[in-house]
Specification:
Chain A is an all-alpha fold. Chain A is built from eleven helices and two strands, in the order αββαααααααααα. The longest helix of chain A is centred in the middle third of the chain and has 38 residues. Chain B is elongated and about 85 Å long. Classes of the chains: A mainly alpha, B alpha+beta. Chains A and B meet through helix 3, helix 4, helix 5, helix 8 and helix 9 of A and helix 6, helix 9, helix 11 and helix 12 of B.
C-alpha cells in the first residue's frame, strides 16, 4: 500500500490477467467473490434488452417503411424520436413512480422479498422473470427507437431498387415482395450494428440498475466509485469493457456467418 | 436516410423569384433545403429561445437560484390567476403541520393575494421579467425552499452549454486527428485508429462515472464544469475523427487535390483550402447530433452525484433530488426539470436530422 501509484497499478494489472483482482476495501472481501453473480445479472438484462430491441424494432421499422408518410408512419417516427431522446434513468424513475401509484407495489430489485437470498428454485426463477421485463424494456427503449429508424431507412432504400420493381412486375404479392425480396437485404446492416448497440445497452443497464436497485454491476460500481474502492471499480470497468469486446467479436462472427461477401474477403 | 417529416410544400423550382438563374452556393442550397423542413425550423427556433432564456436567466428568472427560504420548503406549484381589474396574481400560502409526518404542508390562502408584476424591481434593485412581492413559486420549491422555475432557468446555463463546449472540444480534437489520420495514412493512421478503437471499447456511462469520480473534490465549480466537459468530449471525439478521416481519404485522391499538389501547394494549404471545406457540412451535422448525447451524459452524471456539484446547478443536479421514489411520491413537482431535458434533446435530434437531410446533396 505504501508503494507509488504506478507500482501498485502494475501489481494490480499483472494480478488481473492471472485472475487475482485484489481486495475490496469497502466490503473487506476479495473482489472476485463480489462480482460474478452481478456480472451474470448484467448479462441477463443486456441480452434480454438486445432481444427485445430487435424483436420490436424490426417489425415496426418494416411497418413504418411500407406505410411511408401515412399518419401511422409519422406517429411512429415521432415516437422513435421521443424514445431516442428520453434518458433511461428518467424512464425507470417515472415507471417506478407510476407502478407505485397505481399498483402500490415497489418496483425495486429483481426478486420479491420472499425469494431474496433464497436458494434457486423454479419459484425463484419464475419470480425473477416477473421482475425482469421492466428493466429489459427500459434499457431497450433507446436502442429500439434508433434501430427502428435505421430499419426504416434501409428498407426504403431497398424498396427503391430496380429488382423490387421487377418482383412487383412479375405479379408477386406485395407481402412476398417485401418479406422475401426486400427485408432480407435490408436486415443485413442491422447485424453489423449489433456490435455498435452494445455499449449503449451496457451503459443503460448500469444506470437503470442504479435507479431500480437491481443487483447488477451498476450500483456496486457507483458505490465503489463514491467510496474510492479502486480495485473493485477498476475490475468492474475492465469486466464491462471485456463484455463489450466479446460482444463485438460475436457480432462480427455473426455478420460473417450471414453475409458470404465478408467471409471470403 | 430520407428526411423524417417531409413537408407538404412543393419542391421549389426555378419559379422562385429571389434566385438569379440557379446560381446558388452550396451554403444557400443547404439553407433552402433546411427551411423546408418544418420540424427542423421549429426545433431551431425553440433552441434559440431556450438559449436566450438561459443567457438572460438573471433577468428572466423571478428569483436568484440560490435564494434559500427555509420556512417555505417543498411548496407545491402555485397557480397563476388572472383578473381584468387586478392583472396576474397568486394567492398567499398557508402552512399546516401534517399530524402524521410532522412536515409542514402548504395550501393556498384565499384571503391573501399578491400581484405578479412585469419588470419587477426586487429588494436589491435588480429588475426581473416577472416576479412578485409575495411568495410566487409557479413550479414549487425544493427542500431548501428555492424556486424551482428559477433554478431550471439557471440550470439551463450549465446543462445547455456543456453540450456546446463539449462538442466544440471534440470537433477540434476529432477534426485534427481525423485529418492527420486520413491525410498521412501509414503508421500514424494505424495508431490513431487503434486509439479510437480502444476508446470505443469502453461502455461510456461507466467510464464517465469513473472519470467524474476521479475529479478532485477540492475543485471549484468552474473547474468541475470544465472537467466534466473534457470528460464528455474525450470519449466522443472518436466517431467524429472517423468520419472526417473517411472524407479526407476520399478527397485525397481526387483530381482537384492532385492538381493542387502538382501546382506545388504545401500540405497546410491543401488541408485547409481543399480538404477541410469539403468536410464542414459533415462536421456540423455530426456535431449537432452529438450534442444531445452530451447533454444526457451530463444529466446522468449529475443525477448520480458524480457530475456538477452544488452550489452550481444543472438539470441533472435538480433531478438528483428526485432520485428516490418516496420523495417523488410526496413532492411530484421535483421531476419537472426532466421536461426541459427532453424538449432540448428532442429539438437537437430534429435539428440534426434536418441539417443532415439538407446537407445531403442526394436528398431531393
Amino acid at each position: 500500500m505504501n508503494e507509488p501509484l504506478w507500482k501498485r497499478y502494475l501489481i494490480w494489472i499483472s494480478g488481473f490477467v492471472r485472475g487475482n483482482f485484489g481486495e475490496s476495501f469497502e466490503y473487506k472481501r476479495e473482489v472476485d467473490e463480489l462480482i460474478w453473480d452481478r456480472i451474470a445479472f448484467t448479462l441477463l438484462i443486456s441480452i434480454g434488452s438486445l432481444i427485445f430491441t430487435y424483436i420490436v424494432a424490426i417489425p415496426l421499422g418494416i411497418y413504418s417503411a411500407t406505410h411511408q408518410y401515412k399518419w401511422s408512419d409519422h406517429f411512429l417516427t415521432f415516437l422513435s424520436f421521443v424514445g431516442m431522446s428520453i434518458p433511461a434513468f428518467l424512464l425507470a424513475l417515472s415507471l417506478m413512480v407510476f407502478a407505485f401509484d397505481i399498483f402500490g407495489v415497489p418496483l425495486f430489485g429483481l426478486f420479491s422479498a420472499y425469494y431474496e437470498g433464497a436458494p434457486w428454485t423454479w419459484g425463484k426463477l419464475n419470480d425473477l422473470f416477473k421482475h425482469l421485463w421492466i428493466p429489459v424494456i427500459v434499457v431497450g427503449i433507446n436502442g429500439t427507437a434508433s434501430l427502428m429508424r435505421i430499419m426504416r431507412g434501409n428498407l426504403l432504400d431497398v424498396l427503391g431498387q430496380p429488382f423490387v420493381q421487377t418482383a412487383r412486375a412479375k405479379g408477386l404479392k406485395e407481402i412476398v415482395v417485401v418479406a422475401k425480396h426486400a427485408v432480407r437485404i435490408a436486415i443485413n446492416p442491422l447485424i453489423s450494428i449489433l456490435g455498435m448497440s452494445l455499449p449503449g445497452i451496457l451503459s443503460g443497464s448500469a444506470i437503470v440498475s442504479i435507479v431500480l436497485g437491481l443487483p447488477t454491476v451498476g450500483p456496486i460500481l457507483l458505490n465503489s466509485l463514491l467510496n474510492e474502492d479502486i480495485y473493485l471499480a477498476g475490475t468492474l470497468i475492465m469486466m464491462l469493457s471485456l463484455l463489450l469486446v466479446i460482444g463485438n467479436l460475436l457480432a462480427d462472427i455473426a455478420l460473417a456467418w450471414v453475409d458470404p461477401r465478408i467471409r471470403y474477403e | 436516410m430520407k428526411s423524417i417529416i417531409e413537408t407538404t410544400e412543393d419542391i421549389e423550382g426555378a419559379g422562385d423569384p429571389s434566385t438569379d438563374g440557379g446560381q446558388l452556393s452550396y451554403r444557400q442550397l443547404i439553407w433552402r433545403r433546411f427551411r423546408k423542413n418544418r420540424m427542423g425550423v421549429i426545433s431551431g427556433a425553440l433552441l434559440i429561445l431556450f438559449y436566450g432564456l438561459a443567457i438572460g436567466a438573471d433577468f428572466f428568472a423571478p428569483y436568484h437560484y440560490n435564494e434559500i427560504n427555509m420556512r417555505l420548503r417543498h411548496v407545491p406549484p402555485q397557480r397563476l390567476y388572472f383578473s381584468l381589474s387586478y392583472g396576474f396574481y397568486v394567492h398567499g400560502l398557508k402552512s399546516v403541520r401534517n399530524p402524521e409526518s410532522l412536515e409542514l404542508e402548504f395550501t393556498k390562502d384565499i384571503a391573501r393575494s399578491y400581484p405578479v408584476k412585469f419588470f419587477f424591481k426586487d429588494a436589491d434593485g435588480k429588475r426581473h421579467f416577472f416576479s412578485s412581492a409575495g411568495p410566487m413559486f409557479l413550479l414549487g420549491t425544493d427542500r431548501m425552499g428555492r424556486d424551482l422555475l428559477s433554478r431550471i432557468m439557471y440550470g439551463a446555463r450549465v446543462s445547455m452549454t456543456i453540450g456546446l463546449v463539449g462538442v466544440f472540444l471534440s470537433i477540434v480534437l476529432g477534426s485534427i486527428l481525423g485529418t492527420i489520420s486520413g491525410y498521412w495514412g501509414g503508421w500514424v493512421d494505424n495508431l490513431i485508429q487503434r486509439i479510437i478503437e480502444i476508446l470505443s471499447a469502453f461502455p461510456d456511462i461507466p467510464l464517465w462515472m469513473a472519470l467524474g469520480a476521479a475529479l478532485p473534490p477540492g475543485w471549484s465549480s468552474i473547474q468541475i464544469y470544465f472537467g466534466i466537459t473534457v470528460i464528455l468530449s474525450i470519449i466522443r471525439w472518436g466517431g467524429l475523427a472517423r468520419q472526417v478521416r473517411g472524407k479526407v481519404l476520399a478527397y485525397r485522391e481526387s483530381d482537384f487535390v492532385m492538381a493542387a499538389r502538382a501546382a506545388g501547394a504545401g500540405h497546410w494549404h491543401i488541408i485547409t483550402k481543399h480538404l477541410l471545406p469539403g468536410c464542414y457540412s459533415h462536421i456540423i451535422v455530426i456535431a449537432t447530433l452529438a450534442i444531445p448525447g452530451m447533454i444526457l451524459g451530463e444529466t446522468a452524471l449529475s443525477f448520480l452525484g458524480l457530475g456538477i456539484r452544488p452550489p452550481m446547478t444543472s438539470w441533472g443536479v435538480l433531478l438528483e433530488e428526485a432520485q428516490r421514489v418516496t420523495v417523488l411520491l410526496h413532492y411530484p413537482w421535483l421531476i419537472f426539470p426532466a421536461v426541459p431535458v427532453l424538449v432540448v434533446v428532442i429539438a437537437f435530434n430534429f435539428l440534426g436530422d434536418a441539417l443532415r437531410d439538407a446537407a445531403d446533396p442526394y436528398s431531393d
